């Protein structure tokens, strides 16, 4: 059982880092998109891509606290 707890901890640490990095990347892309939308014209394809990045940002923002919560629960079970 200890083997599973140790590996689940590593899995959720990597999930946290991946979701935080993805959220940061999507946020930066959306800032660039909003600046381009404000000062220049954007195409339909760029709007579609921005929509998908927005969905990825929301998913990442939900996964960050969820992975931290699960990681905390696993750490408490180790003790």
Q: What would you say this structure looks like, in words?
A:
The chain is an all-alpha fold. It has one domain. Helix content is 92%, strand content 0%. It contains 2 helices and no strands. It has helices at residues 2-39, 44-78. The longest helix is centred in the N-terminal third of the chain and has 38 residues, at 2-39. The mean pLDDT is 89.
Give the SSE layout.
Blueprint: H1 2-39, H2 44-78
Write a compact overview of the structure shown.
The chain is mainly alpha-helical and 79 residues long.
> In sequence order, what are the helices and strands, one letter per element?
HH
Total number of helical segments? 2
Task: State the end-to-end CA separation.
Answer: 13 Å
Helical amount: over 70%
Which residue ranges are poorly predicted, with pLDDT under 50 across at least 5 consecutive positions?
none
Which features characterize this protein?
single chain, 79 residues, mainly alpha
């Amino acid at each position: 059982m200890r083997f599973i707890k140790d590996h689940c901890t590593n899995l959720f640490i990597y999930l946290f880092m991946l979701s935080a990095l993805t959220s940061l990347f999507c946020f930066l892309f959306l800032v660039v998109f909003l600046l381009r939308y404000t000062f220049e014209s954007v195409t339909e394809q760029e709007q579609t891509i921005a929509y998908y990045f927005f969905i990825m940002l929301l998913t990442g923002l939900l996964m960050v606290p969820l992975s931290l919560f699960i990681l905390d629960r696993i750490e408490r079970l180790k003790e």
